[in-house]
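Agenda item 2: flavin-adenine dinucleotide complex prediction
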Amino acid sequence: MKRFDAIIIGTGQAGPSLAARFAAAGQTVAIIERHKFGGTCVNTGCIPTKTLVASAYAAHVARRGAEYGFDINGDVRVDMKRVKARKDAVSGRSNKGVEEWLQGTKNCTVIQGHARFQSSNTVAVNDEVLQADKIYINVGGRASVPEMPGIHDVPFFNNSSMMEVDFLPEHLVIVGGSYIGLEFGQMYRRFGSEVTIVEMGPRLSGREDEDVSQAVREILEAEGIQIRLNAKCISLAKRDGGVAVHTECEEGPPDVIGTHVLLAVGRIPNTSDLGLDKAGVATDQRGYIIVDDQLQTNVPGIWALGDCNGRGAFTHTSYNDYEIVADNLFNADHRRVSDRIQAYALYIDPPLGRCGMTDSEIRKSGRAALVAKYPMSRVSRAFEKGETQGFIKICVDAETKQILGAAILGVGGDEVIHVLLDVMYAKAPYTVIERAMHIHPTVSEYLPTILSKLEPFV
Ligand SMILES: Cc1cc2nc3c(=O)[nH]c(=O)nc-3n(C[C@H](O)[C@H](O)[C@H](O)COP(=O)(O)OP(=O)(O)OC[C@H]3O[C@@H](n4cnc5c(N)ncnc54)[C@H](O)[C@@H]3O)c2cc1C
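Presented output:
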């Protein structure tokens, strides 16, 4: 049995930084990875998809060349082999970077293999048993495959297998109209595929406010993406050399026939094959590891970080989990998950940047609020760039003047949202933004103008 001060399972967005922190403190740490270093974000999530989004954006702008005053001889045609090669290079660089970083870290032992608990302080991997008083689980999640009729009869992609695609699907049918489905949908449309998005709910990105969902729908439809909402009882079958996705929608024909299908219907945690029962670690009904506000499980000495604890589903939430755990351990800084403010982006083009509460959450909270909404078409930077879709919406507390939440769907939305987010963390009133001098021409310079239009929230 090999003894370490700490064992970390998984090299996602929390594990490697935590390993480096232990090692820097002169403690011995073992980090175990069963597949690719860097986990989902690096290999099959954020980094490769945003690299693909960039290729799709370049093709889209090239097609609009005439609007900007240039011509391209002939059609803009995307070479998927080169698109994939670019994606592989960017993603591969990060994957290699994580591995080299860990391998080169003194006091850190890197083990490749599948880790399983044997008890609350021992983990088996390959033929070895490791022991530590502190164990950190950072095993992430994977695409879920719902038991819909016909699912075992047809080939389908998920976010991981899509990474191997180096050809243009003629007609890609995407089941699932949330973040992952929408990003792939717009990207493949811009690459040149016909795209249909089939969503069970009444609107796209159902967690967003209705006006956001509607604007997202309009952006995607304007590019020729077919959207089928309220698709109940989805089933799959082979048809005409492709796949028929049968839906019972309120509108449109019941079958959508495509050449390829991508399932983007949610994610599940990688916790069923970890031996959690041997350690006595509790999970909820969906398999997420139950943690407290400082990410400890019900078993003393075991923590869970990242997607597997169900407290976040983003790279930044996983990295923030690392910061919370590390600061509690090494800095006696009692940071908590409940201190963080919800923030994320949807990387369609233009992107959606979101922070804080949605309209319906504000309504539910019952507090007096003010709201201002402003179309991107009146933001001069957007106009100059020829990218005027979307809007900015900001909600503030009528009494404290603190920002409650915001949605920026528009050019630069994923960056501009941080102006509001940082003021929220500072617990400062929105009037601070009104009094600041901003740079012209930017989208951010409009925030004071928008805030001057606050009206009672209805
Ligand atoms: C298509 C897509 C796009 C995304 N885009 C974004 C985005 O733009 N922005 C954003 O913030 N988030 C995005 N996400 C979400 C983001 O990728 C995840 O939230 C993030 O990677 C979670 O990291 P993690 O630390 O929880 O674990 P992961 O990154 O999932 O890593 C877990 C690691 O643990 C390993 N592992 C699992 N079980 C074991 C075991 N038993 N033994 C050893 N190793 C094990 C796995 O192999 C994996 O390497 C996206 C996700 C997807 C699928």
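Discussion summary: The chain has a mean pLDDT of 97.
Owner for follow-up: CH.
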